[in-house]
Amino acid sequence: MNAESAYLFRHALLRDAAYQLQLPGDRARLHAIAFVVVEKMCGGRAPEPADAREPVDHPSDPFARELAEHAGFALESAGEDLRGAQRLYLRRAAAHSQRHFRFDEARELWEAHALLVEGGLRSASLESAAAAALRSGRAKNAERLADEALTVARSAGDRRRESSALERLSRIYQETGRMEPAERSCEEALAILRETGDTRAEGLLVGNLGIIHKDTGRSESAERLFNEAIRLSREIGDRRVEGMMRSNLAMLFQQTGRPELAARTCEEALAEHRRNRNRADEGKTLGNLALLQHEADNAVQAERNFEEAMAIAREVGDRRSLGILLGNLADLYRETRRVELAEQSFKQALSIHREVENRLFEGVTLGNLGILLFETGRDEDAERAFLAARAIHREVGAPRSEGIVLGNLAGLYQRARRFDLAARNYEEALSLHRATGNRRCQGIDCGNFASLLHVTGNLESAERHFAHAIELHRMTGNLTFEGIHSCGQALLYLALGRHGEAREAWPKGAAILREVGNRLELESATAEMHRACAEARIVPFDGS
Question: The whole model's pTM is what?
């Protein structure tokens, strides 16, 4: 230990000793003096926020936690004024931490505030603590806090707060892949809003219900709910929610094979956020637009929009969104074969997720890094990344994400000809997809499993899996994989000697792949079809 460090260590001990030597009453008076001095330096008492979660900025906000601590320690020598100040500055400190994306700190402060209040205010603070816990990837804590918020609201007879707590629980269930309770809680929250005539939040809740329907493959009802949410938000002049719902609708259009409509709707959402000067939502929607452009093979424009979205995230101090955007940009680099840039960006994204304790997206990014490693022939590293991602998803309680990783792990084992392991992982992935209502990924892994069953000679089971996969793709509007697995089904018919059915299935799959512009998959499938036709001593199919 060098001399300077030794001095600092002794200095801290001396300061603590000097503090402890003061009599409790004297300490309380010193804290009261410190409170008055700091508050005066910050321009006087901050106003009571109209909304506990979103107060108007005040110069004291960066010092609000310190002011709350001084007020709390001074209570022995002061009256109700400092007790009220403690409550005030705890609320403001929690909201300040939340605005600056320090979610663990925000959760701690909201919980501390909840201990000092009762009724609806207590429920609101617990719900805010739950939201902060979820943003930092602590789903179990979030669920506990939201349950407590709901119990407090019901005990207080506060129907508005009851609805809000139910909505929060719905989001937690959704994040952790429990779609049935998510839907029930959202519908119950919506029923309370309509019963009490509180239409202010109705558009947002209808939109959240739309997200649940989208994520469980009910595309038509999801589209109807998003449009209803846009109408409701416009009626009450909530342009921010209207923009958010347009962005969600755009992602649904992309998911169901309508890329031009998706891009146009996303541009409308972006214009809405710019009119409202909402930089945070503008950045998120720009990121969504970049994802759409990425899927439409417009890599240059997608990269430009990712970079602009990342610049906005840095500007507003949103490290969490920055990490997510970096991971998405890395995926773009991966698909455009810029391997070094992709790997570097994935690692930067992982560093940010660990910094902000976003465990869920740490797992997602590890899984995507695993895909890059798999594609570049580093199977052992890829397997380690997939297994680490799976462990995180199990830890945070995200079975939906775990199922996706298991499907990718199965693909790795299939290529390595570790067929038993591949089959076991496909079966487990499909079980999780069914449990979480993830019909889109269920269709993808069902079709991929069918390909494995074909390779291993289990042709009857392969036929059943292909048929079910194509049914799920049509249900969820997943044109790309409908095309891929229709071609796979045609190859299976060839292996079964049913050449007429093969000739009927092949052109349908090939036409879909041409329609969605997936040239690489079409070329790969066509090469396989030519090989299979040569083995069967028949002429290759028309429409290839």
Answer: 0.76
